[in-house]
From TrEMBL:
<keyword id="KW-0820">tRNA-binding</keyword>
<keyword id="KW-0378">Hydrolase</keyword>
<dbReference type="Pfam" id="PF01195">
    <property type="entry name" value="Pept_tRNA_hydro"/>
</dbReference>
<dbReference type="GO" id="GO:0072344">
    <property type="term" value="P:rescue of stalled ribosome"/>
</dbReference>
<feature type="binding site">
    <location>
        <position position="14"/>
    </location>
    <ligand>
        <name>tRNA</name>
    </ligand>
</feature>
<dbReference type="InterPro" id="IPR018171">
    <property type="entry name" value="Pept_tRNA_hydro_CS"/>
</dbReference>
<comment type="function">
    <text>Catalyzes the release of premature peptidyl moieties from peptidyl-tRNA molecules trapped in stalled 50S ribosomal subunits, and thus maintains levels of free tRNAs and 50S ribosomes.</text>
</comment>
<comment type="function">
    <text>Hydrolyzes ribosome-free peptidyl-tRNAs (with 1 or more amino acids incorporated), which drop off the ribosome during protein synthesis, or as a result of ribosome stalling.</text>
</comment>
<feature type="binding site">
    <location>
        <position position="64"/>
    </location>
    <ligand>
        <name>tRNA</name>
    </ligand>
</feature>
<feature type="active site" description="Proton acceptor">
    <location>
        <position position="19"/>
    </location>
</feature>
<comment type="subunit">
    <text>Monomer.</text>
</comment>
<dbReference type="GO" id="GO:0004045">
    <property type="term" value="F:peptidyl-tRNA hydrolase activity"/>
</dbReference>
<keyword id="KW-0963">Cytoplasm</keyword>
<feature type="binding site">
    <location>
        <position position="112"/>
    </location>
    <ligand>
        <name>tRNA</name>
    </ligand>
</feature>
<feature type="site" description="Stabilizes the basic form of H active site to accept a proton">
    <location>
        <position position="91"/>
    </location>
</feature>
<dbReference type="InterPro" id="IPR001328">
    <property type="entry name" value="Pept_tRNA_hydro"/>
</dbReference>
<dbReference type="GO" id="GO:0005737">
    <property type="term" value="C:cytoplasm"/>
</dbReference>
């Protein structure tokens, strides 16, 4: 079993924020792969299902971004899993909008949800970094991250999320390079 956590903030006022793109990715994965109903557990919302032949638990922490690690740590401990069994989907300022990169381990790079996760389980988990771009100046970062995707970005957002869902089986199999390669090809179309 693997746990795939999407990071975001709970509540309708945050739903379209760039900071919530991790939640969006998990929602699309659940829908595209026919996951079961949403259940409240581990201080968040979970859905169980399979991608390819791999059992996946999707998790959206309801703890707000800065405390995401509490929910993720609780789920990992319950299933007796380690950081190697976790994939976290989250917004990345240092990637161009709608670019996707996968890496394992590393620091938090200023992302509070990742910082919280590292504090609770260590750093050796897989990260799916979803590019939201940098606004150009550090004084505008907060309003950019906590702002909604623009109407002009909606098509690109939908295309990126759909491509993640379509290529998710490579992630489930642990073939990160193939996932990124096939995703990049889809996003060029």
């Amino acid at each position: 079993m693997q746990i795939w956590a999407g990071l975001g903030n709970p509540g309708p006022k945050y739903a379209m924020h760039r900071h919530n793109v991790g939640f969006m990715a998990v929602d699309v994965l659940a829908e595209m792969h026919g996951f079961g109903p949403v259940q409240k557990k581990f201080q968040g919302w979970i859905q169980e299902g399979t991608i390819g032949s791999d059992k996946i638990l999707l998790l959206k922490p309801a703890t707000f971004m800065n405390e995401s690690g509490r929910s993720i740590g609780e789920a990992l401990r319950y299933y007796k899993l380690g950081p190697q069994d976790l994939t976290v989907f989250y917004d990345e300022l240092d990637l161009d909008p709608f670019k996707v990169k996968v890496k394992r381990g590393g620091g938090a790079a200023g992302h509070n949800g990742i910082r919280s996760t590292i504090q609770h389980i260590g750093a050796d988990f897989r990260r799916v970094r979803l590019g939201i771009g940098h606004p150009g100046h550090k004084d505008r970062v907060t309003s950019h991250v906590l702002g909604n995707f623009a109407k002009s970005e909606q098509d690109d957002l939908v295309q990126m999320l759909g491509a993640i869902g379509a290529e998710a089986e490579w992630l489930a199999k642990g073939n990160d390079a193939r996932f990124m390669s096939d995703l990049a090809l889809r996003l060029q179309e």
